Task: inverse folding
């Protein structure tokens, strides 16, 4: 099946000045990431803060330009940010934000804002606008009377529903969700995630779901990519990665997710400092926190290699299985 | 509004706004009430100046020159040429308000546009706006106006345009700051991401969000423009005879300070009360609308 | 710190250059200087000779460079009326203006700041109410009305002070008062609100909680912190001294720079107007610069922020 979205070798660096008179040094937020998304599929991207996952999401949408590599959407190269071509493409790809209150204009009603993509992209005639907005609101589980409300008059979950309805208004093919539920109460999180999954199935939307929370990703993603300091360290289908994680970092993440009815056994607890992109360790970036690290890990960066059927990992300790090499 | 009234029937929005306004009006302090009444009176006088003015502003009554106020038929007396002070006052109010109003609008539009441009394009445009603002800060406005009027001569349209440059940097600063914070993260960035053109982002989203702050700034600029215009007219560089404005009347009244102080006192009082009213109402509005602006 | 000073100096220089450019553009836009200088009836060959002599037949940018050169070498042109050097005329008037503005400034500082601080420390007292009322008057009464009211009261009704001229020291009283009354109110209000804001800060409460005497809290903790906004407004007042003098000198026929400006404008004596324009701008830029540098000294935080 053809890819909907393909990213090749994306690099994004920031200049960071350390101290008052320090020289500006480049910091690689995203360092050579490649990924693909097929139509209707959900790719989960998991990582701690500072792993570059949000920057990656913005590059996939063409909001931030990559300094290296390229993004191809529906077979076309991503147009430059702000150009008419880029703007037109917004009808096909949309972003769902972490903080829905900040993403909504506090002076416009919910219904006006949900309908805004319709006005911008002129996808349907004006007289169908109200009907389409009502349909969208019903789809995300908002009551019709809530359309006349202002953002601050809704709860956090309702606001996020409104943001999702707005993102879906122009019937996009790709939705990038950047921590869409982490600002919500845990009880609401599951509702919103389930709703997203239903909407995705109904409309055949592909999704890139960015989160630091493996539990949430597990509920929605078909495939999961784990990021550490700007690189993907492991990628596999959701079932496989949770059952048999290969990379020590993934193992640590997976072991920290409680499974109902099971004791937390063999839990791998992460040691050392959380990753800091400005101070990248040599070799495998994970080695200071890795219990298996040896001299090789400290000196050479492991490549992301095939590590089984449909899965890749970047770790010197992971042996490539013979059948995968043959395949 | 709280979660408690989520089940309440939806009331049309203007109804709640009206009742909110009514409630707010009941809490208006006396001084603000006076300010509102005075300003309303001034605006009415400016609109209906032609109807309520008892005499033409150049009509001379040579038999009753320098008549005392309170004497019939000249309620506020007459000036050195026997012209009715009340009629001239009414016309002056109209003139000064028209100039101040036009100039305030020009300055708000000009400043806000520059502020938005600086926020949108950053870099060179932003530095250019900053240099302009530095320039404006380096030349006291009165001096700059005097110089320009010296070089070009005074005319009504030049005067309005000139006054329209007063205080633009205040709007520019506000508009730029708010636009940048809205674009960096939040609703403006979200609308850009929906595919909206910059025009739509700035006019439909950012402008309404900064409007209340801008309107409050207008209440600061408006009285200052009135003072500036009357100062220029007082020096004989603003509104030129036979037209008349408040400052212009004070300037001419000054010649007769010893014999007929009322010529100068009447417009002085109007200037004072008008600027006082605007700052009273403006302060009150600022507290109500935008407590962050001080 | 050096970087901070350099950026400020650069900005000041650019601003001065902008003002000079403004003067040049306005001067050229207002008409042919030859016609303006020689009058409309001048014979044609005189006009041509004038143009050649002043370089007006050169391309505009050559004129611009020559203009800037002459400005920086102190040549501001010749006054049309007196045929004297414009800068000479202006310099002659400076002492008279300083005689009014310096005492007025001192009055503003000596009354305004203490009154504002006292009002902030004694909220709702008579002084506090007086400060608020005075500030409102300062904002709403234009100086020309204030001046005329003072003349009406002290010269016309009471007959104790002269209403115009520069002969004795009594002549200076009314103009100085006119210039300072509004400023006193404005300065008092600024000092008051700066002080109130500082007094509400947590470190003041900490200082009082430590058991420091109230007087020490005010003098060594509150006042230095309230100084930053007060310095700003004082700097602005110093910079706009000449602008304030324009109206007041006209009312009281005081032969200073302000009156010279108004007279020159009425006579369209462009060389003098332009000279005063540049002088005022220079005063303003320098006082802004001093305020900026004072900031860096008063508040080290600002220094490091602006270094970026």
Result:
């Amino acid at each position: 099946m053809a890819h909907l979205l393909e990213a090749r070798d994306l690099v994004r660096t920031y200049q960071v000045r350390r101290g008052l008179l320090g020289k500006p040094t480049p910091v690689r937020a995203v360092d050579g990431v490649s990924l693909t998304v097929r139509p209707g599929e959900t790719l989960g991207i998991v990582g701690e803060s500072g792993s570059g996952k949000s920057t990656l999401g913005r590059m996939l949408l063409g909001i931030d330009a990559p300094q290296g590599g390229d993004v191809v959407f529906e077979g076309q190269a991503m147009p430059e940010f702000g150009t008419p071509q880029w703007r037109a493409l917004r009808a096909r790809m949309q972003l769902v934000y972490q903080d829905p209150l900040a993403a909504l204009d506090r002076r416009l009603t919910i219904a006006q804002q949900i309908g805004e993509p319709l006005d911008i992209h002129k996808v349907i005639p004006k007289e169908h606008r109200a009907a389409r907005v009502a349909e969208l609101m019903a789809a995300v589980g908002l009551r019709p009377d809530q359309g006349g409300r202002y953002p601050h008059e809704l709860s956090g979950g309702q606001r996020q529903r409104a943001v999702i309805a707005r993102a879906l208004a122009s019937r996009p093919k790709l939705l990038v969700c950047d921590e869409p539920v982490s600002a919500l109460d845990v009880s609401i999180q599951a509702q919103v995630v389930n709703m997203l999954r239903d909407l995705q199935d109904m409309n055949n939307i592909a999704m890139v779901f960015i989160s630091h929370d493996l539990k949430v990703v597990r509920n929605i993603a078909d495939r999961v990519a784990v990021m550490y300091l700007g690189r993907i360290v492991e990628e596999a289908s959701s079932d496989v990665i949770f059952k048999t994680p290969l990379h020590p970092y993934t193992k640590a993440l997976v072991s920290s997710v409680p499974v109902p009815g099971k004791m937390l056994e063999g839990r791998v607890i992460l040691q050392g400092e959380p990753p800091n992109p400005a101070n990248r360790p040599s070799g495998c970036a994970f080695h200071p926190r890795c219990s298996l690290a040896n001299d090789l890990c400290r000196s050479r960066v492991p490549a992301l290699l095939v590590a089984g059927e449909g899965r890749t990992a970047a770790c010197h300790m992971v042996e490539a299985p013979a059948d995968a090499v043959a395949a | 509004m709280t979660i408690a009234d989520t089940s309440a029937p939806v009331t049309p929005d203007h109804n709640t706004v009206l009742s909110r306004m009514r409630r707010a009006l009941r809490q208006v302090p006396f001084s603000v009430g006076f300010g509102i009444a005075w300003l309303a009176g001034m605006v009415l006088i400016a609109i209906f100046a032609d109807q309520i003015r008892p005499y033409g502003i150049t009509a001379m009554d040579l038999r009753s020159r320098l008549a005392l106020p309170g004497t019939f038929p000249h309620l506020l007396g007459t000036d050195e040429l026997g012209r009715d002070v009340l009629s001239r006052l009414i016309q002056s109010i109209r003139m000064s308000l028209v100039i101040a109003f036009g100039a305030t609008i020009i300055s708000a539009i000009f400043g806000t546009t520059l502020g938005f441009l600086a926020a949108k394009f950053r870099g060179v445009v932003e530095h250019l706006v900053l240099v302009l603002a530095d320039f404006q800060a380096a030349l006291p406005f009165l001096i700059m106006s005097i110089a320009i009027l010296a070089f070009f001569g005074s005319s009504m349209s030049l005067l309005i345009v000139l006054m329209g440059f007063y205080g633009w940097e205040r709007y520019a600063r506000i508009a730029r700051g708010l636009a940048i914070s809205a674009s960096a993260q939040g609703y403006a960035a979200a609308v850009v991401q929906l595919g909206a053109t910059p025009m739509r982002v700035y006019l439909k989203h950012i402008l309404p969000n900064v409007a209340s702050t801008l309107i409050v700034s207008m209440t600061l600029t408006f009285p200052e423009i009135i003072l500036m215009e009357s100062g220029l007219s007082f020096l004989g560089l603003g509104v030129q005879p036979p037209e008349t404005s408040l400052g212009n009347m004070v300037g001419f009244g000054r010649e007769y300070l010893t014999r007929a102080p009322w010529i100068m006192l009447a417009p002085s009082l109007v200037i004072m009360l008008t600027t006082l009213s605007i700052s009273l109402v403006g302060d009150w509005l600022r507290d109500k609308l935008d407590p962050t602006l001080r | 710190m050096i970087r901070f000073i350099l950026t400020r100096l650069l900005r000041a220089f650019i601003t001065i250059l902008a003002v000079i450019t403004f003067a040049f553009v306005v001067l050229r836009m207002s008409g042919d200087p030859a016609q303006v200088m020689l009058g409309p009836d001048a014979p044609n060959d005189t006009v041509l000779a004038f143009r050649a002599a002043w370089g007006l037949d050169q391309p505009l940018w050559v004129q611009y460079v020559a203009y800037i050169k002459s400005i920086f070498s102190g040549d501001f042109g010749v006054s049309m009326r007196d045929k004297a050097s414009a800068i000479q005329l202006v310099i002659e008037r400076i002492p008279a203006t300083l005689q009014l503005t310096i005492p007025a400034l001192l009055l503003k500082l000596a009354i305004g700041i203490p009154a504002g601080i006292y009002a902030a420390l004694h909220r709702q007292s008579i002084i506090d109410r007086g400060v608020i009322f005075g500030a409102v008057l300062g904002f709403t009464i234009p100086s020309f009305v204030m001046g005329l009211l003072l003349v009406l009261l002290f010269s016309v009704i009471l007959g104790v002070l002269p209403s115009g001229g520069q002969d004795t020291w009594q002549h200076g009283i009314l103009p100085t008062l006119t210039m300072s009354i509004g400023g006193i109110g404005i300065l008092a209000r600024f000092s008051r609100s700066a002080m109130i804001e500082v007094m509400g800060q947590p470190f003041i409460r900490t200082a009082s909680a430590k058991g420091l005497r109230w007087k020490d809290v005010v003098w060594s903790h509150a006042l230095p912190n309230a100084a930053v906004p007060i310095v700003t407004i004082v700097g602005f007042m110093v910079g706009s001294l000449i602008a304030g003098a324009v109206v007041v000198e006209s009312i009281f026929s005081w032969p200073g720079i302000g009156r010279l400006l108004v007279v020159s404008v009425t006579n369209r004596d462009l060389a003098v107007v332009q000279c005063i324009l540049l002088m005022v701008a220079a005063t303003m830029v320098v006082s802004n610069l001093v305020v900026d540098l004072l900031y860096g000294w008063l508040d080290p935080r600002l220094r490091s922020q602006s270094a970026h």
